[in-house]
Amino acid sequence: GDDSQGGFFSKLKKRVFRGETQTKESMDAVRAADAALFPWTSDQSPPQSPTMPVVTPFDSHIVCIMRPGVLEQKRRLVQMDGSRSLQVLARFERVLQPFKVKGTQSSAMSTRDLVENTNLLWHTAQSKIAAVKRDASLQKASNATAEAAYANDVNSLLMVEKIIAQEGGLYPSNMVQAVSQNSEKLALRRGATDLIKTLTWRGVPLTILTAGWAPVATEVLRQTGGVAGPSGMLPPNIAVAGNFFQIASNGIVVGFSPPLTETACNASTAAALLGGSVAQSIRSRPNVVALADSPEALKKLVEGVPPKTRICIGFLEVDEQFNTKLPKYLDSFDVVLVGDASLAYVARLVESMLGLPVQQQQQQQQPPQQQQQPPPHQQQPPPQHQQPPYPPHG
Description:
Layout: H1 2-17, H2 24-37, E1 54-58, E2 61-65, H3 68-81, E3 86-91, H4 92-96, H5 111-116, H6 123-142, H7 146-167, H8 175-181, H9 183-186, H10 192-202, E4 206-213, H11 214-223, E5 238-247, E6 253-257, H12 267-274, H13 276-284, E7 287-292, H14 295-301, E8 309-316, H15 322-332, E9 335-338, H16 344-354, H17 359-364, H18 376-379
Parallel strand pairs: 3-4, 3-7, 4-5, 7-8, 8-9
Antiparallel strand pairs: 1-2, 2-9, 5-6
Helix pairs in contact: 3-16, 6-7, 8-11, 10-16, 12-13
């Protein structure tokens, strides 16, 4: 009923806010729920799939699995097919990045924030962009339909891009320093490096999609310790899709490559945008782990990928709309991570499908893929989809 459901939501919300996951009682609950969260660690052979919903603290957040038997069935299917059948799709903002800057209540900096709200742009362009965003917010508040709100967002984004291209004075080569100066605000979620290393070691493609600027997301990854190789290049299994700059011969941004913003945040568009081996992996690997921050983002994210086995993991922020959003998340995702979760659960789930954990092996040597030549989209992409013009840094 509504009363019991509301009480459950309220209790869950309080547990996340007051950090109950660190108490002895909650740690006992973690141990008691391990067989349900990770049935493949059971001593039973074969392990039995849990049937009751699992809601338990794990690594300082809450894990919700409403259909654990279905999840375990999917996990076994992926494990049987092997690593060559698997790919991972993830949103950059609010998924690979946390909701909040560590230790604060400030939202993490998006790729658009870095370009539009730092000294990368001339002051006059920043002022005009701020005015466009104010007007867009006022219009959005008065829009009666979702379609009108979406049209308003697209129109304002087109205006912002026009200002940047014509009056911004944006040199992508300056982004290296800008990302470094804002590293805490741009940081990835805890556990992201371990997940990326696992995928790289096993040769599993990771396609990262952003509604903002792909070159900024790429630079954040390059500067995250343990992700890039010794030369500063990203591992060849990692691809970043989003909006790309069009750069003049003098190194200044003069335009942007389509598609626009949110349209770039689906797998089919990423395949067309990046081409080559990335497109082949997206279109041919039938098993997908999809990481998204809303049911709507998930639906868009998996457009264009084979539908064989999809394990969908959602990241749910605890905010004023928490009670309203939670039922939709539980219905749309196989797993819902409540609070500003780490990626530890995702890494452990992926490792179970690929074989034994690989952390010790990774500490001893570099993954062999890092010694290969990067795919075409990381070498010299076509002019209409240019990557950052700056050279790799160590």
